[in-house]
Specification:
Blueprint: E1 6-12, E2 20-25, E3 33-43, H1 45-51, E4 64-65, E5 69-77, E6 89-93, E7 107-111, E8 115-117, H2 124-128, H3 131-144, E9 152-156, H4 161-172, E10 176-181, H5 186-192, E11 195-198, H6 204-212, E12 219-222, H7 227-235, E13 242-245, H8 255-258, E14 263-266, H9 271-275, H10 279-294, E15 307-308, H11 312-321, E16 328-331
Parallel strand pairs: 9-10, 9-12, 10-11, 12-13, 13-14, 15-16
Antiparallel strand pairs: 1-2, 1-4, 3-5, 3-7, 3-16, 5-6, 6-8
Domain Enoyl reductase (ER): 16-330
Protein name: Zinc-dependent alcohol dehydrogenase family protein
GO molecular function: oxidoreductase activity
């Protein structure tokens, strides 16, 4: 009797418990899927929340293989797949939520529409760090706020995961970019192409007056949430301002925004994975990412530490400690 091939994976068996390294069945590529031999898996704050049982919106129930982002090599191509062949280097935001196997494993069978060819000038580690943060930034700035050249864009949390990519996208598309951060983040924020704002040194009213003559910003991307989203409402441009948030999950008073006749949009990047709708758009966004990256307009901040499936819990602890100097990545191969 033949046995199915196995692969190594890090498995979450119970919320709040360390991931367990074990052998599980290797998936096969079904119709519309490609089998990816995973080389690197990006670590996102959401992975930690899922593991702790604090992310009901991700619809992940143990036992589960986490890991939202991946980079790897196409090992097999299922029926009805066009545009990919065995040996292609790819990246994407492909699972780890909604019961879909994640990237903390040697292989994953993923919806081909979620993938794009890896930028030629990126390593597997760099590519694995990008999908969720780039898609989140792009959906907010381009899909929701309709960013165009010449606009004044404010990014809250400009040195963070989504923030540093949002700054670079806005800059690449011709906007005048501003970003909040701490004083010690000024150099990094300016290197990404933004004018840095020390949020501890000035009030919202003060930097709105200083930088926009009191008029406000055309687009504000909040990547922090909470009180920062409230501050965004007060900094939007009269009549034409648009506030976008990827963390607008609290209760907020809309009066400051309404009194400025401005608008608001939320970004929920997981929706195509959870609903099955709009997945091809994520692949299209990553093709845009590859184009900008290969043109030298986008760089990802990557922490220098290396982790493997055997030390994935150390990677999660490092992410929880918030001491990393950029995105954390787990090497799989």
């Amino acid at each position: 009797m033949s046995t199915s091939p196995l692969m190594q994976a890090a498995v979450l068996h119970a919320y709040g418990q360390p991931l367990s390294l074990e052998h599980i069945a290797r998936p096969q590529a079904g119709p519309g899927q490609v089998l990816v031999r995973i080389k690197a898996s990006g670590v996102n704050p959401l992975d930690l929340k899922i593991a702790a049982g604090q992310a009901a919106h991700a619809r992940t129930v143990p036992p589960a293989v986490l890991g939202i982002d991946l980079a790897g090599v196409v090992a097999a191509v299922g029926a009805d797949v066009n545009g990919f062949q065995v040996g292609d280097e790819v990246f994407g935001m492909t699972g780890g939520v909604g019961g879909i196997q994640g990237s903390l494993a040697e292989y994953a069978a993923v919806d081909a529409s979620l993938l794009a060819l890896k930028p030629r000038n990126l390593s597997m580690r760099e590519a694995a760090a990008l999908p969720l943060v780039f898609i989140t930034a792009w959906e907010g700035l381009v899909d929701r706020a309709r960013l165009h050249a010449g606009q004044r864009v404010l990014v809250h949390g400009g040195a963070g995961g989504v923030g540093h990519i949002a700054v670079q996208i806005a800059h690449a598309l011709g906007a005048q970019v501003f970003a909040t951060g701490s004083a010690d983040q000024r150099q990094a924020i300016e290197a990404y192409g933004a004018i840095a704002i020390d949020y501890r040194a000035e009030t919202v009213a003060q930097y709105v007056e200083r930088l926009t003559g009191g008029e406000g910003f055309d687009i504000i991307y909040d990547t922090v949430g909470g009180a920062t989203l409230d501050a965004s409402f007060a900094a939007a441009r009269l009549y034409h301002g648009h506030v976008v948030s990827c963390l607008g999950w609290g209760t907020h008073a809309l009066a400051p925004l309404s009194f400025r006749a401005a608008s608001y949009s939320g970004v929920f990047t997981l929706l195509p994975l959870l609903s099955g709708q709009g997945r091809a758009h994520h692949g299209a966004i990553l093709r845009k990412a590859a184009s900008l990256i290969e043109a030298g307009k986008i760089k990802v901040a990557l922490d220098a530490a290396h982790y493997t499936l055997a030390t994935v819990n150390d990677a999660h602890r490092a992410a929880a400690a918030r001491t990393a100097q950029g995105k954390l990545v787990v090497d799989i191969a």
